[in-house]
Amino acid sequence: MTKSPIPVVFIHGLWIHSDAWQEWVELYRAAGYDPTAPGWPGDSSDVERTRNNAAALANKGIDDITRHYTKVIDGLAAKPIVIGHSFGGLIAQKLLGEGRAAAAVAIDPGQIKGVRPLPFAQIRSGLPVLSKPSNKKKAVSLTKKQFRYGFGNALAEAESAELFDKWTIPGPGRPLFEASAANFKKTSPAAVDTRRDDRGPLLIIAGGRDHTVPEVVAKAAYKLYADSGAITDFHVFPDRGHSLVLDHGWREVADVTLDWLRGQGL
């Protein structure tokens, strides 16, 4: 009997459309998986339509996004591998902690509850949203300059500008407000069950030049799993920024995830 391919769900982060995963989807399909890259709730089918309907994204929080992907998973034939970038990495960890995923890869993951470091670069990257409390209920777009600092700082300026034009969309402000306040509240949608022993394996990937989720932030998330008996691994690309899943070096990152999954027997 032929074994059915393992489903893989790719989860994008703030300000990037799910279509940016397309090369990953093709690579994973060629590797024998059954991949899909659904957008966040409120996303339209392509970049231009999403830009033209920003109101549909407004006021969507971490729980809304998690529930959206839970419904996607409920429609699959088997428990999937989830791979998320930025806030998608936070969502991937939540889904794994809830037992809804067979394994997870969190790439430059958004800050979960319990992570303490708050480098200046991360503060500056979040200012386009966090500087105005009213943005919590709005969808906010980055300027090309803001994208250059938060995503494309490790790239040539021309490539950063190209990625901005090709993939950026408005993003809801609520997840950033929720994550930034997580350590000051008893309960938070940014909380993840980091102590669970019976979950699937987790790989956290960091970029050493990332401004939006600096390496020290990703490493702090990794350390929160120290009390779990489940597999948790960490990998850093020292010369990469927050754009590492969609820029010219995406394949190197993707190959690391594939090699790691094979090492887990998945």
What's this, in brief?
By secondary structure, the chain is α/β, with parallel strands linked by helices.
How does this model look, in words?
The protein is built from 10 helices and 8 strands. The two termini are 18 Å apart. The protein has a 6-stranded parallel beta sheet with strand order 2-1-3-4-7-8, sandwiched between helices. A two-stranded antiparallel ribbon has the order 5-6. The chain has a single domain, classed as Rossmann fold (3-Layer(aba) Sandwich). With 266 residues, the chain is of the alpha/beta class. It has helices at 22-30, 47-51, 62-74, 87-97, 120-130, 144-150, 157-167, 174-180, 215-223, 250-263; strands spanning 7-11, 34-36, 81-85, 103-107, 139-140, 171-172, 202-207, 232-237.
